[in-house]
Amino acid sequence: MQPDLLSPAHTAHVASQLATRSPLIHCLTNQVVQSFTANVLLAVGASPAMVVDHEEALAFSAIADALLINIGTLTREQALAMRAAIDGANRAGKPWTLDPVAVGPLAFRSRFAREILAQKPAAIRGNASEILALAGNGAGGRGVDATQGAQEAVSAARELAQQTGAIVAVTGEVDYVTDGDRTLTITGGDPLMTRVVGTGCALSAVVAAACALPGSRLENVAAACGVFALAGKRAAAQSQGPGSFPSLFLDALYQLHTEGA
Ligand SMILES: Nc1ncnc2c1ncn2[C@@H]1O[C@H](COP(=O)(O)OP(=O)(O)OP(=O)(O)O)[C@@H](O)[C@H]1O
Ligand SMILES: Cc1ncsc1CCO
Ligand SMILES: [Mg+2]
Question: ipTM, 2 decimals?
Answer without folding.
Answer: 0.98
